[in-house]
From TrEMBL:
Residues 272-282 have a biased composition (Low complexity). Gene3D superfamilies: P-loop containing nucleotide triphosphate hydrolases. Residues 258-268 have a biased composition (Basic and acidic residues). Residues 255-282 are annotated as: Disordered. PANTHER family: ARSENICAL PUMP-DRIVING ATPASE ARSENITE-TRANSLOCATING ATPASE, ATPASE RV3679-RELATED. SUPFAM superfamilies: P-loop containing nucleoside triphosphate hydrolases (SSF52540). Pfam families: ArsA_ATPase. Residues 5-180 form the ArsA/GET3 Anion-transporting ATPase-like domain. It comes from Streptomyces halobius. InterPro entries: ArsA/GET3_ATPase-like (IPR025723), ATPase_ArsA/GET3 (IPR016300), P-loop_NTPase (IPR027417). This is P-loop NTPase.
Length: 352
């Protein structure tokens, strides 16, 4: 069973939200998960409506069934100090280097070093056990960099191991890659049913597979229901104004003046205007609803085009051959209640 779940996706697809929902989903039934942030945006704190996360593992939520979700915002500078202490016993000297600005300088001029530290910290949490030999966390979920950078981010330790042939750096890099390329790790891709996110998802999965990094599932985020049934999408085709006008008349919006007069007589009202007819100055014709027909048809055409595009993109994702999961768009935005709702939806769709 996978224990490190790396969540990536094109910017704007909601990968942080999906990572948070996944951490909650994996923590149900009394399990314990660690949600890791590596980009320093404090997105996790915002989602869980808590204060900014420090560089320490802190419980931020309780999942259904009593499970616990912890969170950690990994800071590259602090991780480097840990690294220097762990392998070179440079605790005091490392703190002195930080005061001199050397730590910040090192992590800034060497982006690869930052990735080594970030992935290493996450993999350390994967391997960590208590005194009885049991894992501290049942699962670790990483809110990782976007698709354009995810393969290099995860594969950086392979490059480091090749550069440093011996010593603690070489051994650490190999240990990290053993976790990342093992069955313990899966990378999940978050996408939208739009052309660019789907293309980046497909390209990212191909790169991960070529690098030998396991890929898990595809989460299709912010899905929207089809307002029109399949058989009704043709209503957006040209030449349907008459059918729409008839439907509006049947709904009591405009229609023939005679029908309005008869309705008014039956209800005891003045027969001067059709039921649903607009006041003076409205569009003339069979009824004031004529002015609604073209805007409604335009909306229907746009909706039909979107539905057809989403069908095509969904088929492309299915053809990749990975499990897919769908999370609906929450019109009111994702608050804490919405996050639990998304976690529940993930659980319903099977193991991820």
């Amino acid at each position: 069973m996978s224990r490190l779940h790396v969540v990536s996706g094109k910017g704007g697809t909601g990968k942080t939200t999906v990572a948070a929902a996944l951490a909650l989903a994996l923590a149900t039934e009394g399990r314990r998960t660690l949600l890791v942030e590596v980009e320093g945006r404090q997105g996790i704190a915002q989602l869980f409506e808590t204060e900014a996360l420090p560089y320490e593992e802190r419980k931020i939520a309780v999942a259904p069934g009593g499970g616990e979700v912890y969170a950690l915002a990994i800071d590259a500078e602090r991780a480097l100090l840990d690294y220097l202490q762990m392998f070179y016993k440079l605790g005091t000297a490392g703190r002195a280097l930080k005061k001199l600005g050397a730590i910040d300088f090192a992590t800034t001029i060497a982006p690869g070093l930052r990735d080594v530290l970030l992935t290493g910290k996450a993999c350390e949490a994967v391997r960590r056990k208590d005194k009885s030999g049991a894992f501290i966390y049942d699962a670790i979920v990483m809110d990782a960099p976007p698709t354009g950078r995810i393969t290099r981010f995860l594969n950086v330790n392979d490059e480091v191991a090749g550069l440093a042939r011996i010593g603690p750096i070489h051994n650490q890099a190999q240990a990290v890659m053993r976790v990342i390329k093992s069955s313990e790790t899966v990378v999940h891709m978050v996408t939208l049913l739009e052309e660019m996110p789907v293309q980046e998802t497909s390209d990212g999965i191909a790169e991960l597979r070529a690098a030998g990094i396991p890929v898990g599932g595809i989460v299709i985020n912010m899905t929207r229901p089809a307002v029109l049934e399949n058989g009704d999408l043709d209503i957006a085709a040209p030449g349907t104004r008459t059918a729409v006008a008839k439907a509006l008349a049947q709904a009591g919006l405009g229609g023939a003046r005679r029908g309005g007069e008869e309705m008014a007589r039956r209800e005891g009202g003045p027969p001067g205007r059709s039921l649903g007819e607009a006041p003076a100055g409205a569009a003339a014709g069979d009824g004031w609803a004529d002015g609604l027909i073209d805007p409604l048809l335009e909306q229907a055409r746009e909706h039909a085009e979107r539905v057809e595009l989403e069908r095509v993109e969904h088929a492309e994702l299915t053809a990749i051959g990975l499990p897919t999961y769908e999370l609906e768009l929450l019109p009111e935005g994702v608050d804490l209640a919405g996050l639990y709702r998304l976690a529940r939806d993930l659980r319903k769709q099977g193991p991820i």
